[in-house]
Design a protein that fits this description.
Blueprint (H helix, E strand, L loop, with lengths): L3 E6 L11 E8 L5 H10 L4 E4 L5 E3 L2 E9 L4 E6 L3 E7 L4 H11 L23 E2 L2 E2 L4 E8 L4 E6 L11 H4 L4 E11 L9 H9 L7 H15 L8 E4 L5 E2 L1 H10 L5 E4 L2 E4 L1 H7 L10 E3 L6 E4 L5 H19 L8 E3 L1
Parallel strand pairs: 2-5, 3-5, 4-19
Antiparallel strand pairs: 1-2, 6-7, 7-12, 8-9, 10-11, 10-12, 13-18, 14-16, 15-16, 17-18
Helix pairs in contact: 4-5
The chain binds flavin-adenine dinucleotide (FAD) and NADP nicotinamide-adenine-dinucleotide phosphate (NAP).
Length: about 350
């Protein structure tokens, strides 16, 4: 049954633990309730925000309109062959739960994306990625409700305009409600461990025979060793995207900073935002309520009761100092709302 609450506390619905209040709030656990909810939103002429785990959001103290927590569940096998499987997964399923389920069933491809917080429905929004794998590599279709045309739609992977931590969904906030995602997973395991931290952990454990479980374990261990657990220290993961700069810009920087980490990218050279921030002396910085994580300069943390203003001011100061030193503009990754 659909219940709509007013001025609902969202502290537990965002991993930065912003003490935000939603003008209206509903939990959608049955898609059959969607028409009633859309009707309420339309009749009151409200803006709406559709959320999963709130792990990529920076909320204001008051969130106008209706916030909907998508909590639909279900994993359905749509086709199964010797080589691969097509599974349709409801938007409200937990992302890490899905990765675990796939490995247990011998369906491969998602193992490098273990332990990313949040929901399946949000995974296409910023085309989540880690350790050399992007979710777009495994997505086949995305089912949506398009609030512009007021119709359900099935979008093929090519329609989703996936790019580095980006998609059509992220560029059109509020337009598409993702109801399910269909993944094409292989039954033949292929290891992807080009990231030094992953390979380093496997070497340190003496693991020579790679399996999906071994990669999963390595990803979980490496992440737990350097990333703050939001339940202990609230955060929204990487606060800035890694900037991609032109070859000329990179050559200029390398003259001055020969050790600058860099990775070739289709449109230039990708720099590590965490390194740039660390060079500016931010790692471990502690302000009254918010700060920069001591082991990972890319993560802004909420030590105690930080507000949206505290987070925005810190993020602006970090961006400005990186620009002053490297002439590189950082772009915020988590979505600020409103
Ligand atoms: P939310 O934060 O609830 O929402 C994020 C955005 O997606 C919002 O704009 C929201 O409106 C929209 N959205 C959510 N669900 C839907 C839906 N069903 N339909 C339409 N729009 C929707 N990200 C990575 O890419 N790689 C990582 O390795 C990674 N590591 C992280 C580690 C930590 C500790 C944390 C806190 C975050 C990390 N993230 C990472 C960021 C975040 O976990 C991902 O972006 C995740 O996909 C967000 O899921 P969510 O359900 O919490 O989305
Ligand atoms: P890391 O291993 O310390 O590496 C630092 C940066 O260098 C990463 O951001 C990564 O880019 C890049 N990099 C490293 N090796 C690379 C390679 N072989 N090829 C291309 N790029 C390479 O990074 P980390 O901070 O511990 O994070 C590990 C992984 O988890 C990364 O993929 C990162 O994106 C992901 N992660 C994301 C979030 C988030 O909120 N978005 C939070 C935590 C971790 P990429 O980021 O492009 O991979």
């Amino acid at each position: 049954m659909l219940t709509i609450h007013s001025w609902h506390d969202l502290t537990a619905f965002n991993t930065l633990a912003m003490p935000a209040k939603a003008q209206f709030f509903a939990e959608l656990s049955d898609l059959n309730d969607l028409p009633e909810l859309l009707d309420f939103i339309a009749k009151q002429d409200l803006p709406s925000l559709w959320i999963g785990g709130g792990s990529n959001l920076v909320l204001a103290d008051e969130v106008p309109g209706c916030v909907v927590h998508i909590a639909t569940k279900g994993i359905e096998i749509q086709s199964d062959s010797e080589e691969s499987v097509l599974i349709k997964v409801a938007a409200g399923e937990s992302w890490h739960g899905l990765v675990t389920h796939c490995i247990e069933n011998g369906w491969y491809g998602l193992e490098n994306l273990a332990l990313i917080p949040g929901s399946v429905g949000a995974s296409p929004v910023q085309n989540i990625g880690a350790y050399g794998v992007e979710v777009a590599d495994l997505i086949d279709q995305v089912e949506v409700f398009d609030t512009l045309s007021n119709t359900f739609d099935v979008m093929q992977k090519a329609d989703c305009q996936f790019a580095y931590r980006d998609s059509l969904f992220k560029r059109n906030p509020g337009r598409f409600i993702i109801t399910s995602v269909r993944f094409n997973l292989s039954k033949q395991f292929e290891a992807k461990c080009s990231y030094a931290a992953l390979q380093g952990w496997l070497d340190a454990q003496g693991i020579k025979e790679l399996s999906a479980q071994a990669i999963f374990d390595a990803v979980v261990a490496v992440r737990q060793s350097k990333l703050p657990n939001p339940e202990v220290l609230p955060n929204a993961g990487s606060f800035f995207k890694n900037p991609v700069v032109s070859n000329d810009c990179f050559e200029g920087l390398r003259q001055i900073y020969p050790e600058i980490p860099n990775y070739p990218d289709a449109s230039g050279v990708k720099l590590a935002a965490g390194w740039l921030i660390d060079q500016c002396g931010w790692k471990g910085l502690y302000r009254e309520r918010v700060g920069v994580h001591k082991d990972q300069a890319l993560v802004i943390v909420n030590h105690a009761g930080g507000s949206r203003q505290d987070i925005d001011e810190l993020a602006d100061d970090i961006k400005q100092s990186v620009f002053n030193r490297f002439s590189v503009r950082l772009e915020q990754e988590p979505i600020a709302y409103p």
